[in-house]
Amino acid sequence: MNESVQVVSRPDIARNDVGLVEAGAWDVGTPERQRETVDAIRKAWAGRDWPHPGLLAYTVHVGDDGRTLFHYAQWSGEDACQEFVRNGRDARDADIDAAVPGIRRLGLHTYELYRSGVAKEGDRREPGCIVIVDVEFDGSDAARQRDWVDGVFEALGTDPAPAPGGISGHFHVSVDGARVLNYAEWVSAQAHIDALGAPGDGVGSRTPQWERVQSYPGVIGGGVHRYTPALSLRAGM
């Protein structure tokens, strides 16, 4: 049975039926083209059935840099994702490219969700900002990915002055063993800016636990990018 497309207020990042996540960015050049692209995505998806039963949800966020869009697709597993890819270019992409020519697709990485730190029960704050933290290592090592993430959780748990604007953090490890992605929900972009400006190196106090995270051997790159929630879709009933 074909399913319709449902617009939801926010994705459920920690849902337990997700086997695989594909995440990546597009560069569209200007704030106006960011808005045009999100509108084109909405129109391209709204007029069609849900593309594959193994695609659980699809989310797009608008970069605060005025250029980029972040794409986050949750899949039931690798088989479903590969079956969709084998069927070729989806007509949705063709419609989006026709509406906004010249989109630069900056690369797509495949992840599994490893650990989540979620809001306490009763916390009803809605995220006004999504912070994507990318960490790249100098080679493939699944144990090292998880050790780095575990170190972050230890640092968070022992921080004497945790940032008040953080809502949740969802840490993903890439299937190639070389990257970590944190999908973090914040109440606002300003709350994240304030956290970066507090004493310490980045988000976090000056503690031995945070120092271990920040000086972890083998980390060769990455970045921190802020996005505004724009569009989240899932299969309707």
SSE blueprint:
Layout: E1 5-8, E2 20-27, H1 31-46, E3 55-63, E4 68-75, H2 78-86, H3 91-99, E5 104-117, E6 129-137, H4 142-158, E7 166-174, E8 179-186, H5 189-197, H6 208-214, E9 219-235
Antiparallel strand pairs: 1-9, 2-4, 2-5, 3-4, 3-9, 5-7, 6-8, 6-9, 7-8
Structural description of this entry:
Helix 1 (31-46) runs antiparallel to helix 3 and helix 4 packs antiparallel against helix 6. By secondary structure, this protein is α+β, with helices and mostly antiparallel strands. A hairpin with a 4-residue loop joins strand 3 (55-63) and strand 4. 28% of the residues lie in helices and 36% in strands. It has an 8-stranded antiparallel beta barrel with strand order 2-4-3-9-6-8-7-5, surrounded by 4 helices.
Name its key features.
single chain, 237 residues, alpha+beta, 8-stranded antiparallel beta barrel, 9 strands, 28% helix
Q: Which segments are poorly predicted (pLDDT under 50) over 5 or more consecutive residues?
A: none
- Structural class by sheet pairing and helices: alpha+beta
* Overall spatial form: globular
Helical content class: 25-40%
User: What strand order characterises the main sheet?
Assistant: 2-4-3-9-6-8-7-5
Q: Order of helices and strands, N to C? A: EEHEEHHEEHEEHHE
Strand content: 35-45%
- Major sheet characteristics: 8 strands, antiparallel, barrel
Radius of gyration: 18 Å
Mean pLDDT: 93
Q: How many angstroms does the end-to-end distance come to?
A: 10 Å
Strand element count = 9
Count of separate DSSP helical elements: 6
